[in-house]
Amino acid sequence: MTIEKKLMIEAMNARKMAYAPYSGFQVGAALLGKSGKIYRGCNIENAAYDPSNCAERTAFFKAVSEGERQFQSIAIVGGPKDGNLKLCPPCGVCRQVMAEFCDPEQFRVILGAGEKDYQIYLLKELLPLGFGKETM
Ligand code: THU
């Protein structure tokens, strides 16, 4: 099995844990560290809305809090509860979090609607001219 397919399956499994009672839009992410370990994340919403967290950031914060700071790729899947998966490009805040820890020329973002139906983007395509530590 390719690593892309494995990450898509992990992301779909992560999505089952989504806590999204307000939007009804459930997202799952699977983040591959350079160590080879996979960190899953789901979106976690809140009655006060602002404290909600996206699936991608859940995965990144889990990984970084466990000591992993270098990453290869992330798969993301999303869709309405009880509906079909649809392409779920990461929000701007999540792209910025990716840029903090990942080389935009290397880090791969896998977006898809199923284990056989995905596209691969480099972070630099999703966050051109991003602000980062090199800028400061
Ligand atoms: N969401 C994510 O978890 N990741 C994305 O890439 C886009 C949006 C979540 C946030 C919120 O819980 C729900 O999807 C609807 O915006």
TrEMBL record:
Domain CMP/dCMP-type deaminase residues, every copy: 2-134
One GO molecular-function entry: zinc ion binding
Residues reported in the UniProt entry to bind Zn(2+): 54, 91, 94
EC number(s) reported in the record: 3.5.4.5
Entry GO CC: cytosol
PANTHER family: CYTIDINE DEAMINASE
Cofactor(s) in the UniProt record: Zn(2+)
Organism: Candidatus Limivivens merdigallinarum
Binding, substrate: 43-49
Function (record text): This enzyme scavenges exogenous and endogenous cytidine and 2'-deoxycytidine for UMP synthesis.
InterPro entries, sorted: CMP_dCMP_dom (IPR002125), Cyt/Deoxycyt_deaminase (IPR050202), Cyt_deam_tetra (IPR006262), Cytidine_deaminase-like (IPR016193)
Gene3D superfamilies according to UniProt: Cytidine Deaminase, domain 2
UniProt-annotated catalytic positions: 56 (proton donor)
Entry protein name: Cytidine deaminase
Reactions catalysed, as given in the entry: 2'-deoxycytidine + H2O + H(+) = 2'-deoxyuridine + NH4(+); cytidine + H2O + H(+) = uridine + NH4(+)
UniProt-listed GO biological process terms: nucleobase-containing small molecule metabolic process; pyrimidine-containing compound metabolic process
